[in-house]
Amino acid sequence: MRKKPFPSWPIFGKAEEKALIEVLRSGKWGIGGEKNAEFSQAYAKWLGVRRVVTCTNGTAAIEIALRAVGVKPADEVIVPSYTFVATASSVLSIGAVPVFADIEPETYMMDPDSVEAVITPKTKAIIPVYIGGGPADLDRILKIARDRDLRVVEDAAQAHGAEWNGKRIGGDGDIAIWSFQSSKNLTAGEGGAMSTNNEEIGEDAWSIMNCGRRKDRQWYEHFILGSNFRMTEFQAAILLKQLAKVEGQMKIRDKNAAYLAKRLKEVEGIAPLEAYPQTTRHAHHLFIMRYDQNAFGGVPKEKFVKTVNKEGIPLAPGYTIPLHELPAIRNYSLPYVNLDYSTTKLPVTERACKEEGMWFHQSVLLGTRRDMDDIVDALLKVKKHSNEPA
Ligand SMILES: Cc1ncc(COP(=O)(O)O)c(C=O)c1O
Question: CA separation (Å) from 196 to 24, 83, 115, 167, 193?
Answer without folding.
Answer: 31, 22, 23, 14, 10
